[in-house]
Structures are given as C-alpha cells and as structure tokens.
C-alpha cells in the first residue's frame, strides 16, 4: 500500500451538455518520503489534480487514498501551497501564518505559536516584512509567505501547485533549496506541480508528465537518478541530467504537436510505464 | 517633511486633495503641473461658486420683478391708479406688508442664516437661564421621585439640526443592526437567498411615505399606554427601514461572493464554521458592507426630512414645513438656509463614511 494512491480517477466539471471531463483515468502512487513532480501545460488539469489530492475536490469516479483511507476532505496532514498564493489580504504576513499555525496546533500556547511563526518567517527571509500586508509585498515575497504558511503547519505531505511560477530566477532558486532542505531534514513526502522541467529534475525523484486536457492522463514517468544534494551548476554538465531533460522535453513537445494535429480525437496511450528513462530512450 | 506626508495622506484619504495644492501655493513649491492643478482644483470651483451665486441673484431679482409688477397691475385693475402707486411706493420702501413672495436672493438667505444663529443664541441663553432657575427645584423634585421640570420653549434651528442628526443616527444604527446580520445569513445560504429574494425586491422600492404609515400603524398601538416620544420612535424606525436595503443587499452580495481562494484557504486550514465566518467571510466582505452602509446613511438622511415632515416629529423636516406654512417674510429664505444645511450635512456624513470605508478596505496599499 502506497502512501498516496490515485486509482482510475476521473474528474468532470459541469453537468449534462456542459460537462467537460478534465481528468481521465489517472493512476498515481507516491511512497512515503518521496519527492514527485508533475509537469504539464497550462490548462491541462494540474490544479484540478492537486485539489483532488488535498481534498478540496472529490473525484467523479475512482478513488484517492491517503495512507490507505479515502480522501473525503482537507486535512492538516496534507499542506497546500496554492498556485495564486491565496493569502488573506486583510491580515499581515505574521497574522496569515499565525492563523494557520493556530489551527494546526490548537494545544500550543500563544507564545509557542508566535515562536513558530517567527521561525518560519525567518526561514523565508521575511522577518523585516512580518507586519506588512500582502498588497505591500512583491509577488516573490507573497509566494514565500505562502510557502512559510504551508510549511509552518508541519504537514506530513506537502502539495505544491506551481509554487514558484511567478518568481524571478534568483528567488526561485533560493526557494527551491529551502523547500528541498525542509523536505530532506524532516523527511516529508512532497508533490510538486510545475511547468518547468529543469525545476522538476532539480528537485524531484520522479517526474510524471500530465498530458494536455480535456481527458488528461498521466504520461510515462521519468526517474531522476541523480545523487542528492544536487548542485545546480554541476547539473548542467551532468550527462544524466541532459539526457533526462531532453527526453522529457521531447515527450512534451510530441504531445504538444499531437494535440495540434488531432484536435478532438481520443488518444490511447501506449500502456507502458518505463521504470527508468535510461535504456528506454 | 514627515508631517507633510501624513497631511497629504489624510487629506487625500478624505477626498480633500485640493487642500494640498492650496498648501503648496503658500509654501511656494508649485511647479507648472501643480499650478494647473491649482487652477483646476481651487480657482475653478471658487469661480463656479461665484457664478452660481450671481445667477441665483439675477434669477431671484427677475422673479421678484415679475411678482412686483403683477402686484401693481392687480392693484391697478382692482382699485385704480392711486392704489397702484401706493403699492409701488410700498414695495420700493421695502415694507414687510407688501413684499412680493418669491425666490429669495442670496443676500436675503445670508441674512436669514444670521438671524437663525442669533435666534439660536437667544434661545440657548433662555434655556440656560431656565436651567439655572429650576436647578434647585429640579434637584428637590428628583429627590422626591418626581419628574424634573423641563424646558418647553421653541427649539432653535441648531436644536432642530441636532434632533435630525439624532434621528438619522438612530435610524442608521437600526438599519445596521438589522441589515448586516440578516445580510450575512442570507449571503451564506443560496437557498435562503433565493427564498427571500422576492421579499427584498418588493420592499426595496417602497416609498418612505408608505414605510412611515406602516410604522405609524404599529408603533401607535404599541406605545398607547406609555408616554414615550412616539414621533421620534416612528421617524427613526421608518428611516431605518427605508434605508437598510442597500446594506442588506450589499452585505448578502459580499458574503456570497467571497473569493473562492479564501474559502479554499479556510478549508485547507480546517477552520470551524464560526471561525470561517468571522475570520474569512466577514473581513473579505467588509468593503462591500461599508459601501452598503454609506449608501444607507445617505438614503437615511435624504428620507429623514420627508419623514419628519410627515410624522410631525421635530427636526429639520418639520422646520422646513413650519416655515412654509408660516409664510412670514423671511420664511422662504429660511427654507433655503435649511436646504443648504441639509445638503452640507449630507455631504459631510458621506465624507465620514468614505473615510471609514477607505480605512477598512484592504485593497488600499497604504492604510492609516
Ligand atoms: N471549477 C471549474 N469548473 C469548470 N471548469 C474548470 C473548473 N476549474 C478548472 N476548469 C477547467 O479545467 C481545465 C483544467 O484546469 P486547471 O486544473 O486549473 O489546469 P492547470 O492547473 O493545469 O492550468 C481548464 O480547461 C479549466 O478551464
Ligand atoms: Mg493550475
């Protein structure tokens, strides 16, 4: 029994004539402590998939199992970093995080809660901005608050929906390292949604492409067999990295072209999931 | 430097940005752009005020002439040349008995304004004297458990304003206390919303007069055997009922349209229902609630005058009505004074609400 399991999951939005099947026959299993990345084009249904896993949405068909039990709603065990930050604009940085921490640890004293808040605000280098409101922050700073809020709740599994999408390269790199740090230190399980293949390769153990919707399905997975801790500059010279990167990009390009040429046709995927990209391509 | 920044902010915040331009005119740091601003924001408005007063003056004068000519003509056809001459002389002399009754000129209105203020000073002096005189007796009466003797003289214009303000605030508070909680409840439930929608749509456009009559029917019976001030109760309840709809609709809309992202946050944090309402839904709908309250207050002030007039409850409305019926020589100009006061207070109330609204609106980058 895997830590997180999606079995034949379908998700349809709308009813009757307006129904669109966004996700179709999704099968995914993630082991405890694993770092999995899902890459896909915009609009392919990545956020929908994330919401099925964190419990904000229920599948139309199929089941989502977390530690063997069906996911029926949200849980503090699964922390979420939303794509669009979703900070409460009337609260300051500190208050936004405090609110989350207070819900996660109802038994802790005020002082302890404030300590946790300070710790995580410091971790994302936002101590000087702790009393600012989201509107006064740059996109990158807001995203860091969202990261701090999710991590401060100390979830067992952290689910990130394009968490670094809006950031500049430098901030992006820093936050990637911070997320990896926490994941490594406390051995959490992580699911990262991204549209950046390099980011996926740098951070994840496995990369799974999500084919474009409607009726999006998961493509074959790519294992990243690169030793941790990984070094960004070295990575560029790593033959393994290059090969993986090219393979994934080629795959994505292919399905992109496919999509253009056979607009509405249903496509059957070859039923194979290579264990490792090495040797398969 | 620091101080001027905060002044800038405060004035801008209250929609009084022109004060800044005025200030920089005196401090001398006015560039070309600033000068154009100065023209637009200070000179032009002041010029338009003078233009308005000038037009008013000329209009009043020509109305006066029409009325005077008509009077003379009438005297001529009814009583002959002699009476017409007498009338002409009488009008020219400015005698009170034969003044044409028409739109008063700005100068007359200004005179009436001053006379109303004088009147207020006389009455308040009178009141103070009365209070002094009755202080000892009243103390004794209270000690004996009797009602103290109260001043029953005519209220001054300023007293009327204060009474009106009291009524409008009571009505506004009533609207707030009724409309916000109901709006929140309606906003939370789609079913409830669609089931009471017809009720709101029907009651919203009902005229203040009808509300007054409805409230009158109920309150009259309910206060039958108490000696409370039923005119005040009737008018403030009517004001509240007339004006609460904007707040009700806005609150319901604000609560119903909370950003899905915030609701998702509430779900992911697993907030309880009460926490969800108070920590997420209410704060996020505050801007809309305050927009509603601002409309409510201005509607309340607008209908108040009509309601006071009809309910015979003291205040600016009855002041206007009494002056109209009074028909004294300066009644018309007193009515115009009341008009400006009503407009001015309405404007001030709106500014106050706007300031509060800006403070609670989290969309502003800088709060004070
Ligand atoms: N609540 C919804 N109702 C109807 N359609 C939706 C809804 N949410 C998303 N969709 C549609 O589902 C598709 C996938 O959306 P999404 O999961 O947000 O994609 P991604 O995160 O990969 O950009 C899009 O075509 C979008 O228009
Ligand atoms: Mg998305």
Automatic annotation (TrEMBL), chain A:
Lineage: superkingdom: Bacteria
Transport in keyword set: yes
GO molecular-function terms, A-Z: ATP binding; ATP hydrolysis activity
Pfam family name, one: ABC_tran
InterPro entries: AAA+_ATPase, ABC_transporter-like_ATP-bd, ABC_transporter-like_CS, ABC_transporter_ATP-bind, P-loop_NTPase
SMART domains registered for this protein in UniProt: AAA
Protein keywords: ATP-binding, Nucleotide-binding, Transport
ABC transporter domain span: 4-237
PANTHER family associated with the record: ALIPHATIC SULFONATES IMPORT ATP-BINDING PROTEIN SSUB, TAURINE IMPORT ATP-BINDING PROTEIN-RELATED
Entry protein name: ABC transporter ATP-binding protein
Upper classification of the organism: Bacteria, Pseudomonadati, Bacteroidota, Flavobacteriia, Flavobacteriales
Automatic annotation (TrEMBL), chain B:
Topology class, membrane: Multi-pass membrane protein
Gene3D superfamilies in UniProt: MetI-like
Keywords: Cell membrane, Membrane, Transmembrane, Transmembrane helix, Transport
Subcellular location: Cell membrane
Name used for this protein in its record: ABC transporter permease
InterPro entries: MetI-like, MetI-like_sf
Pfam families: BPD_transp_1
Limits of the ABC transmembrane type-1 domain: 161-353
Example of a GO cellular component annotation carried by this entry: plasma membrane
Upper lineage: Bacteria, Pseudomonadati, Bacteroidota, Flavobacteriia, Flavobacteriales
First-listed, main subcellular location of the protein, grouped into a coarse class: membrane
């Amino acid at each position: 029994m895997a830590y997180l399991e999606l079995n034949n999951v379908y998700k349809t939005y709308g009813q009757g004539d307006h129904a669109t099947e966004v996700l179709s026959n999704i099968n995914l299993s993630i082991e405890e402590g694993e770092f999995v990345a899902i890459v896909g084009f915009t609009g392919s249904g990545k956020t929908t998939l994330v919401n099925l896993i964190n419990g904000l949405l229920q599948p139309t068909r199929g089941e989502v199992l977390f530690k063997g039990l069906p996911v029926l709603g949200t849980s503090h065990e699964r922390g979420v970093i939303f794509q669009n930050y979703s900070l409460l604009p009337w609260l300051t940085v500190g208050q936004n995080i405090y609110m989350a921490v207070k819900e996660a640890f109802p038994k802790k004293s005020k002082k302890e809660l404030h300590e946790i808040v300070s710790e995580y605000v410091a971790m994302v280098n936002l101590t000087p901005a702790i009393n600012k409101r989201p509107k006064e922050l740059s996109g990158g700073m807001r995203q860091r608050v969202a990261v701090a809020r999710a991590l401060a709740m100390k979830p067992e599994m952290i689910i990130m929906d394009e968490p670094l999408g809006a950031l500049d390269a430098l901030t992006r790199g820093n936050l990637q390292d911070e997320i990896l740090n926490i994941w490594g230190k406390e051995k959490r399980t992580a699911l990262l949604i991204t549209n950046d293949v390099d980011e996926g390769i740098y951070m994840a153990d496995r990369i799974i492409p999500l084919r474009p919707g409607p009726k999006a399905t998961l493509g074959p997975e790519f294992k990243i067999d690169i030793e941790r801790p990984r070094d960004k500059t070295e990575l560029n010279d790593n033959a393994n990295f290059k090969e993986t990167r090219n393979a994934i990009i080629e795959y994505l390009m292919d399905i992109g072209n496919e999509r253009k040429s056979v607009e509405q046709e249903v496509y059957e995927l070859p039923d194979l999931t290579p264990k490792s990209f090495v040797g398969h391509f | 430097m620091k101080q001027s920044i905060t002044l800038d902010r405060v004035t801008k915040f209250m929609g009084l940005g022109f004060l800044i331009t005025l200030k920089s005119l005196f401090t001398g740091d006015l560039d070309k752009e600033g000068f154009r601003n100065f023209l637009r924001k200070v000179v032009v408005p002041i010029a338009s005020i003078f233009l308005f007063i000038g037009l008013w003056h000329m209009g009043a004068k020509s109305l006066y002439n029409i009325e005077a000519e008509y009077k003379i003509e009438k005297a001529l056809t009814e009583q002959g040349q002699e009476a017409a001459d007498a009338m002409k002389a009488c009008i020219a002399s400015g005698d009170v008995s034969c003044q044409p009754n028409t739109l008063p000129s700005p100068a007359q209105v200004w005179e009436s304004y001053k006379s109303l203020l004088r009147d207020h000073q006389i009455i308040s002096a009178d009141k103070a004297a009365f209070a002094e005189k009755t202080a000892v007796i009243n103390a004794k009466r209270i000690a004996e458990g009797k009602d103290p003797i109260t001043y029953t003289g005519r209220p001054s214009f300023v007293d009327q304003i204060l009474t009106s303000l009291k009524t409008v605030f009571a009505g506004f508070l009533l609207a707030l206390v009724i409309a916000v909680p109901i709006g929140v409840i309606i906003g939370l439930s789609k079913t409830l919303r669609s089931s009471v929608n017809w009720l709101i749509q029907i009651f919203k456009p009902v005229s203040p007069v009808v509300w007054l009559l409805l409230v009158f029917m109920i309150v009259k019976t309910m206060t039958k055997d108490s000696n409370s001030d039923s005119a005040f109760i009737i008018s403030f309840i009517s004001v509240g009922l007339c004006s609460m709809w904007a707040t009700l609709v806005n609150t319901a809309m604000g609560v119903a349209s909370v950003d899905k992202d915030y609701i998702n946050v509430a779900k992911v944090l697993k907030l309880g229902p009460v926490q969800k309402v108070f920590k997420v839904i209410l704060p996020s709908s505050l801007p809309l609630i305050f927009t509603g309250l601002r409309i409510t207050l201005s509607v309340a002030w607008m209908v108040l005058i009509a309601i006071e007039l009809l309910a015979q409850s003291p205040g600016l409305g009855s002041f206007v009505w009494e002056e109209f019926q009074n028909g004294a020589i300066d009644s018309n100009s007193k009515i115009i004074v009341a008009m400006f006061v009503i407009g001015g207070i309405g404007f001030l109330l709106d500014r106050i609400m706007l300031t509060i609204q800006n403070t609670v609106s989290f969309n502003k980058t800088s709060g004070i």
